[in-house]
Amino acid sequence: MLPYGRQSISEEDIAAVVEILRGDWLTTGPAVTAFEQAVGQLAGGHRAISTTSGTSALHTAYAGMGVGPGDEVVTTPMTFVATASTASILGATVLFADVDQDTALLDPAAVEVVMTERTKVVAAVDYAGQPADYAALQPIADRVGALTLADAAHSIGGTAGGRPVGDLADVTTFSFFPTKNLTTGEGGAVVAKDPGIAQRAHEFHFIGLVRDSDRFRLTDEGPWHQEVHELGLNYRLTDIASALGLAQLRRLADFKRRRAEIVARYDAAFAALDGVRTPVQRDGVDPVWHLYPLRVLDGRRRQVFERMRADGIGVQVNYIPVYWHPVYADAGYRRGMCPNAEAFYAEELSLPLFPDLTDDQVDQVVDSVVTALR
Prior knowledge:
The protein is of the alpha/beta class. It has helices spanning 11-21, 30-42, 54-64, 82-89, 108-114, 134-143, 195-205, 239-249, 252-270, 301-310, 326-329, 339-347, 359-372, and strands at 47-51, 72-75, 93-96, 119-125, 147-151, 159-160, 163-164, 171-175, 188-192, 209-210, 227-228, 276-277, 285-286, 292-296, 348-351. The longest helix is centred in the last third of the chain and has 19 residues, at 252-270.
């Protein structure tokens, strides 16, 4: 089965990990520091906190922003459940706003309709690798004193308006899962413009430990002393994973180039094909394409999905609207809330897209799409 996404691991990646295994540090050592500095530099020069996954990065980000009971988080339903669930776990009420019908990115006008004075965070998702419209979202959030969060699990290395992903919202999260644009095996990161938010995020992901003696409440202990002022979790990334991440960062430009080549090949192949729509790119963005979300029209998505899977092509669907999940349906969320998202979901089919995909394999995917539509 040709997968829809997979990691690209080189001999240099392997050597970087082996070097850590032969050294003194396996976790929370110099490789973690170096990786965080490199991610922060890529993301506009802001502080980065590495985490164990994209989900833990979201949990850490919301905690760093002070999200809790009584707060509202406005977000998109066209995402993996963690964008919403990590806010729900902290006690926030999640409000879903509809998406742009062409790009599946959070629609700023829809955000304005649902947000209230209790809105703490507006969380957009850079679906498929395109940055959301943060230039429009930020002033909307500012009017009620809310923060913006970019769930950039799909978009590290991209830009919008000449600014890098990581510098577009108040806080940004990344995922380094194997199918993403670079991998640490499992991993993620939080990037925050505000140093106070960054420090709170750091302490949350570090079990809540405070090591700044100027903040100690117990002042008569020895040099070993550390305190917990607020509860946190152990979401720390390892040196092993960070070494792989550093090696992958050196290849990110090549990954981006190859993904763009594959997207262009798909676009050309499907431009005149009846029954499908190709992805729409926002003006002013330079994406790192994580997904190729082909739209299969006329209610034929499931048929095409099943035919292509039978043909050995591991297509996927990204994503079921979050509020369709039983955990949200049981809480009172109802279908029909976000019609654009639901219409997009009904047609979306993610085709294989990863750097090691060959041109011959791309052509194999194209032939499978054409055959499935007959």
